[in-house]
Amino acid sequence: MHPAQAPPADAPPWESARAIENLTPAECRRFAELVAEAYPELHRVVAGLVTNPHDLDDVLQDAILKIFRNFRKYNPERGFRGWACTIALNAARDFLRAQRVRRGFGLSDELIQQLMSVSGGTYELAELRIELLHGCLAALSKGDQQMLWECYGTDVAAAEWARRRGKRENAVYSRLRRLRERLFDCINDKLGESS
Length: 195
Hints:
Blueprint: H1 14-21, H2 25-47, H3 53-69, H4 80-103, H5 109-138, H6 142-152, H7 158-165, H8 169-194
Helix pairs in contact: 2-3, 2-4, 3-4, 4-5, 5-8
């Protein structure tokens, strides 16, 4: 399709944007996959600065559009989430600045920058904790890994899991609590080793 040519009326919704940005269908699919994976983090970083739900939706939509428009600049060797979250934070900052100008009052640029720094640091710490969690999970027995996955990684509640295996519900909840504590301690120990 020629970039200036309009997509057919029955084309998928990304076709008009693809034509504008001149991305291939494969690039559009990859973009959609990456944004879907990163969406919870994008939402969290924007919600950390923009608290009104309607404004949050608008800023998030604007951020995703900016991410899309800059997708060709994305370096796949870097983490997509961090890159996309930086764009989302900047979109939130721009929104707060515009809101301050429109209303005549609001958060100063200095305070917005401080909030962004805290949010960015929180994000980096969460990413590090997730990375360490993988190693801590790998150190558990296969049975414990399976129990955690089946109780937390699926829609099966712990009570249902216990019933299916003929286990006492309280025993399952106690075991899950001990495993969570063990993982928490493992992550904190590894954080202490890295500092």
